[in-house]
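Input sequence (538 aa), recorded before submission:
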Amino acid sequence: MKKTAMAFSLLLLLHAPLQAGECKVALVFEGQTTEQLSILAELLTSTLRQEQGLTLVEEETLEGPVTLERAASLGKRAGVEVVMIGSLKAESYRLDARLIEVQSGVVRAAPSVSGAKGEVFDLVDALGKKLSENLHAGGGKPHRVVIFDYANLASAEYGPFVRGLPDMLATNLGQARGLSLVERTEIEEGWAHFFREPGQVLSPDEAAEMGAWLGADWVVAGSFTEVIEVRVKLVEVRTGRLLAEQRAEGGWEEIADQVAQLGGVMAQRLSAFGDSLHKVAVLYFENHAASEYEGFVRGISDMLMTCLGQADDLMVIERVQIERAMQNFALELSGPIATEKAVEIGQWLGADAVVLGGFTRFGEAFRIDARLISARTGELLVAQNVRGGEEEMMALVDQLGSRLVASLAEKETEVKGGTGELQVHFMITKTEMGERYIYRHLCKLYVDGKYLGTSPVLEGTEQWATSFAKKLRAGKHEVLVVHGFVKKGDWDGEMPGQPKVFQVVIEPGQTATVQYSFEVGWFNDRYLYEHPWRGLPR
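Predicted structure, token format:
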């Protein structure tokens, strides 16, 4: 496969009927078409193909970036419910180091720095500074240090740069008082003596053994990695809204497993979206009034489609598909439709439910009835009616749609065992004596892959804050909180580190709690999940 700089988008469709836990999805990749990135794209799609009920079919290759708007437009043309956008980029680099004590063979520090291509030399200086600080942390006695050849975990084109890393680090460490460095010629003799190739990855014991032979107190061993970022977004086609977003990052040796795991997570979220999505077919209403109202009655179904289509968990089948179904069953568009025949039409359309109804007049009063029927069982799920005068007829249709949506939500909650509350508690802490800057946090909440809102700005330290409090249906849920930077009170990009995904069980009428903190450390930050000494916020 030839490498090229051309941007690409690979469109794949899941041509499967909408069943419980399934939905039709278009998968789009955007990025640079290097050989490695193409391999990773194939790995992600192969992971999705393994999920039961998902069948991926390649359609076409597109160029250019895929915005949420373009994804929704593309999805509508493809006839799918969700578009998954996957971006694969290799635009940053990471330098790792292990500071190994020769006498014990223990790794005393493992500093790491990362940044963009134009910052690489600054990264070397930053890593050298961290190593120098760690070497002096244990006291002021003199140290003899050996800096081994770095392992090149990126592509071969970076070989000359990686071979120069020990000399650049030696420049940084050589300026530190009390440190003496083992000469390059001696280190080459060490590689030869132990029959190893320069740049070979060494275990701590192997590095300590070579360091002892060279008469060193400390060993610096490390690697240079080209960092790959994999980002996946799920976009609902009907509304163009972002349903979920997930990111993985690592070197070439790490990213394959992460992509496979990411594909599995996205497949689960697609399944959860399929479980929550109700695909509805609104059939034409029957006119039980005078023929002069025929035009209005024909328009009731279209107005209801608009109203129902605004609900998050409802997808309304397009009118042209319904008319094709009516023709297939040789039915009149304005005639009566029996419940059994409506169920058959719904199944033919791949719908979860169908809406039937009628319009009636008595004197100056008008009434509109609607029934929502399961297309799988024929069960009556919801029945509603509205009534009013002639001047109210347009408003009555909107009122009817709102009642259907509310009744369906109540019915689903009742079936699934009631509701409870999820509370997310968060706190920013700081390592004792630490001097690093503390960033404010802005968080986005996703439950079962659905975006449920953004928190207020979180900036206080050493105190618990309730970042989210949401009503959820009873049962098991997957809770993801994505942390971002803050700029003028708004979201300013995702933070590099993120908390784990929480598995939560909501009991009816009860509150389930997710509690974690973000600790700003000396050199690295981390999320903490156990706080037995701090208790819960009041």
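Checked by second reader. The longest strand covers residues 82-101.
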